[in-house]
C-alpha cells in the first residue's frame, strides 16, 4: 500500500514479484489518490494485476467500478481481459454503469464477455440505455438475440420516446418485438407533454400507435404545455379530436397555468427560476391557441364563453385577440363580464380590444345598462354607429329612452338610419318618451 501511495511503479513491481500472500486487495486502493496521473495508475494497475493472488472481481468488482467511474478506461480494459474477472458477481451494476458512462470499445468487451448476460434483470441494460439516451449502446444490445427490448411492458421505447431520443426510438421501432402502443399508447401521450416533435412524427407513422388514446390525451398534453410543433402534427392526423374532454385542449392552451416537464429541464430551464419558466411556458401559447382555433371541432364558446372571460380577467392580451377574431366568440357573455373583469384588474390592452368589438357595446344597449353605455361612449374606440346604427335602432324599439338620449348626444349616431327605423319602431311600440 505504501508503494502505491508513493506512486512507485518499480516498488510495486518488486513487491509483486515476491512470493507473499496478499491479505488485502491493493486494487481497491488504487484510485484513492487523486494526484496520480493516468499513466501512473495504469502502470501500477498492470503490475498489480500480474500478481497471482490478485482477484480483480473481489468486493463485487469494486476495482472495475471504481476505475470506470473515474474514467480510467485503460485500467478498466485490463481488468476485463484478466482471467479472474467475473462480471457475474455484479454484472447488473457493471452494465448499468457502462451505459451511463458510455465507451463503445469497453461496452463491446463487456457484452461479449462469456459471463455477462445482457438480458439479466428483465433486460435492465436496454431499459437503462433508453433512459440515458445512449443510442449506440441500444444498437449493440439490440443486435444480441438474448436481449428483449419489449421487457417490462416495452419500457425501453416508452422511456426513449419521452426523453426525445430519436435514434433509439427509431432503432426500437425497427425491432419486431417492440410495441410502441404499450400501456395504452403511453409513448405518444407522454412525448406530447415533453414536446419532442420528431419522436411524435416517428410514432404517428407507425400504424400500431393510436394518438386518440385516453380521450385524445396526446393533444391535450401538447396543448397544455404549449408544444406548438407537436400540436400541429397531431392536428394533421385524421383521427385526432382536439375538442375531446369538453375542449380541454383549447382551455388549457388559453389558461395562465404554467406547466413544466422533464423536457423543460433538458432545455436548460431552471425550475426555481419562475420568470424563465413562465416565459418559456407562454412563448408558444399564442401559436398553440391559433392552431386549435383553426380546427372546426374546437368550440371556444363553451360554458358561456368562459375562455374569453377568464383570459380577459387574467390580462392575456394575445389570447383575447385571437379569441375575438373567432366568429363564434361572444365577449359580451354574462353581462360583459370579460370587459368588467379586465377593467377592474387594470388590463388596459385587453379593455381596448374588447371596446373595439361591436358585441360589447351592443350587449350594453340591449340590456339597458345606462351607466355602462355612458362609460363606453366616452371611449374613443367605441363607435355607436356600428352595424348601421344598430344601437339607437335597438334602444328606440325597446323604449330605452335614457340610452337613446345618450346615443343622440354622440356625433357619430344617425337616428335616421335604415329609413328612420328608430322613430318608426318606437312609435309602433308606443314608446312616446323616445
TrEMBL record:
Signal peptide: none
Chain ranges passing through the membrane: none
Keywords from the named record: ANK repeat, Repeat
Protein name, as recorded: Uncharacterized protein
Organism in which the protein naturally occurs: Planoprotostelium fungivorum
Organism lineage: Eukaryota, Amoebozoa, Evosea, Variosea, Cavosteliida
Amino acid at each position: 500500500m505504501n508503494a502505491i501511495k508513493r506512486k512507485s511503479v518499480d516498488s510495486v513491481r518488486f513487491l509483486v514479484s515476491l512470493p507473499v500472500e496478499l491479505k488485502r486487495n491493493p486494487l481497491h486502493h488504487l484510485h484513492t489518490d487523486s494526484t496520480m496521473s493516468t499513466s501512473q495508475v495504469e502502470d501500477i494497475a498492470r503490475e498489480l494485476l500480474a500478481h497471482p493472488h490478485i482477484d480483480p472481481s473481489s468486493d463485487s468488482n469494486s476495482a472495475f467500478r471504481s476505475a470506470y467511474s473515474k474514467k480510467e478506461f485503460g485500467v478498466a480494459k485490463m481488468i476485463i481481459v484478466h482471467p479472474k474477472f467475473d462480471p457475474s458477481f455484479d454484472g447488473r451494476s457493471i452494465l448499468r454503469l457502462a451505459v451511463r458512462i458510455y465507451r463503445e470499445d469497453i461496452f463491446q468487451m463487456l457484452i461479449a464477455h462469456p459471463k455477462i448476460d445482457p438480458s439479466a434483470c428483465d433486460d435492465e441494460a436496454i431499459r437503462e440505455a433508453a433512459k440515458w439516451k445512449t443510442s449506440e449502446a441500444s444498437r449493440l444490445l439490440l443486435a444480441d438475440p438474448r436481449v428483449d427490448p419489449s421487457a417490462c411492458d416495452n419500457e425501453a421505447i416508452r422511456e426513449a420516446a419521452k426523453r426525445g431520443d430519436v435514434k433509439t426510438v427509431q432503432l426500437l421501432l425497427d425491432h419486431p418485438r417492440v410495441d410502441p402502443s404499450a400501456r395504452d399508447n403511453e409513448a405518444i401521450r407522454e412525448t406530447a407533454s415533453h414536446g419532442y416533435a420528431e419522436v411524435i412524427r416517428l410514432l404517428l407513422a407507425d400504424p400500431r400507435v393510436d394518438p386518440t388514446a385516453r380521450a385524445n390525451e396526446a393533444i391535450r398534453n401538447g396543448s397544455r404545455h404549449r408544444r406548438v410543433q407537436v400540436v400541429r402534427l397531431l392536428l394533421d392526423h385524421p383521427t385526432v379530436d382536439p375538442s375531446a374532454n369538453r375542449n380541454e385542449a383549447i382551455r388549457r392552451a388559453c389558461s395562465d397555468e404554467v406547466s413544466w416537464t422533464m423536457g423543460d429541464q433538458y432545455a436548460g430551464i431552471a425550475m426555481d427560476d419562475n420568470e424563465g419558466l413562465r416565459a418559456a411556458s407562454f412563448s408558444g401559447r399564442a401559436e398553440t391557441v391559433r392552431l386549435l382555433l383553426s380546427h372546426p371541432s374546437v368550440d371556444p364558446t363553451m360554458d358561456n364563453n368562459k375562455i374569453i372571460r377568464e383570459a380577459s380577467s387574467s390580462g392575456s392580451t394575445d389570447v383575447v385577440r385571437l379569441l375575438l377574431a373567432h366568429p363564434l366568440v361572444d365577449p359580451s357573455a354574462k353581462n360583459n363580464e370579460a370587459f368588467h373583469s379586465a377593467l377592474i384588474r387594470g388590463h388596459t390592452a385587453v379593455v381596448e380590444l374588447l371596446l373595439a368589438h361591436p358585441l360589447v357595446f351592443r350587449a350594453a344597449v340591449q340590456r339597458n345598462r345606462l351607466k355602462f353605455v355612458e362609460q363606453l361612449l366616452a371611449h374613443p374606440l367605441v363607435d355607436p354607429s356600428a352595424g348601421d346604427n344598430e344601437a339607437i335602432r335597438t334602444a328606440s324599439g325597446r323604449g330605452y329612452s335614457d340610452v337613446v338620449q345618450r346615443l343622440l348626444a354622440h356625433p357619430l349616431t344617425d337616428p335616421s338610419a335604415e329609413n328612420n327605423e328608430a322613430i318608426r319602431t318606437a312609435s309602433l311600440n308606443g314608446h312616446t318618451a323616445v
